[in-house]
Amino acid sequence: MGYVHIITIDIALGWRLLQWPGFTVLRSLKTILPLSLCAVLNGQILADGHVHITNRVYWEGIDPWKPQPVGQWDYARARAGGVNFVIENIAPYGYNTYNTTVKHAGRLIETFHRTLEGHRDQMELALTAADVRRIVASGKMAVMLSIEAGFDQEGDIDILRLWYRLGVRVIQFSSQVTTAFADSSVRGEAKWSGINDKGRRLIAEMNRLGILIDISHATEAAQRQIIAASRAPVVASHTALRSICSNPANLSDDVLRALAAKGGMVGIHSAAEQIGQRYYDWSRGKPSIPVNGVTREDILFAESPLIRSPNRDYGEYIDALDAQQGNRWRRFYSQPWHESPEGAAVVPSIEEWTAHVAHAVAVAGPRSVAIGLDLTHARSTLKNFDAGHYPDLVEALRKRNLATPEILGESWLRVLDSAKVSN
């Protein structure tokens, strides 16, 4: 009976009560304590549709079910913050060439499955929306697998099918660099003026298999063409709205309308430069603040200066690339990152984040909006925020009458249910 009384009180106050030592006995009840009170009510889903942790497990050997002293996100803090469903993105950053993208994506997927096996009592792979509901009802975290930054730069359809067999259900269509089938808004020329015929064949196969297509990091022309070519809804998993913050990486209202008209949705990002106009204006043209001499760009966009011999390479190239990337990654995550005093003064608040949610709802409706924070390391996100603060996010949404089941998680389940389209 005590649980019922807890659920009826204010979310933020209830969360503070759950931190009280007197609730120690509840900490063993997986179906109660790890969820924020709003998610406990009626078994509601609280989802983040764009997270990253497997790369850290691979390079650093961390246990993602232990709170990490460095970095903004891990399963432990997210679960304690009430999240019960995430879409985990493996990302072969720095492996952008023939063979290396597929090789590193495969290693990261294997790492992800080992993490699952090591934490069977806490998490489970979800392949469908029905799986998500079943896993959440069991008291565990439901995790769906996605690929960011390239599933195969050449666009081999059999590699796409292989990833599906291994449990991948979401793929970011454009990479961090222009590929053989789609233009990237991050790096590379607009080779295809959007996407090409190979890209359209890949989209048709993703629709047939039931892989949800993510248009994040595509050029606007590519975004429009992907939406038009897909027979299933597509998503922009982690972005914000250009009408609120003029960062060109953000989504235009026109693309959002096209996305929603096809049944798709947007996950609202947390990065300061995409949420806060003041922060974006301040940060333009400023170099990234490094950690131990390593910047985010060194991690995300690294290219080896080595040239692989076509006939006489016996592992030297990949060994050198792995050594470079591993060294950079471990240095990068070796200590906390701190914003400059000038930047800290203009870091956006959670309320500024909810302004993007409100605008997206006004343009496309609540069924087309959800959470996609992309919390990582070495950049500002929302003021005083990390994976332990999802209850604050929910409370801010509640204050604006935006804490709807759709925005908190059901929008993700709806599009996942619609990703498969028979020929």
Strand content: 5-15%
What is the H/E string? HHHEHHEHEHEHEHEHEHEHHHHHHEHH
Sheet with the most strands, sense and barrel status: 6 strands, parallel
Helix coverage percent of residues?
40-55%
Description:
The protein has helices at 2-7, 11-19, 37-40, 54-60, 75-80, 100-118, 129-137, 157-165, 197-209, 220-229, 253-261, 272-275, 277-283, 296-300, 316-332, 341-344, 350-364, 390-399, 405-417; strands at residues 47-51, 85-90, 123-125, 141-147, 168-172, 212-214, 235-239, 265-268, 369-371. It has 19 helices and 9 strands. Helices cover 42% and strands 10% of the residues. The protein has one domain (2-417): Alpha-Beta Barrel (TIM Barrel). The strands form 2 sheets. Strands 1, 2, 3, 4, 5 and 6 form a 6-stranded parallel β-sheet that branches. Helix 17 packs across helix 18 (390-399). The chain is an alpha/beta fold.
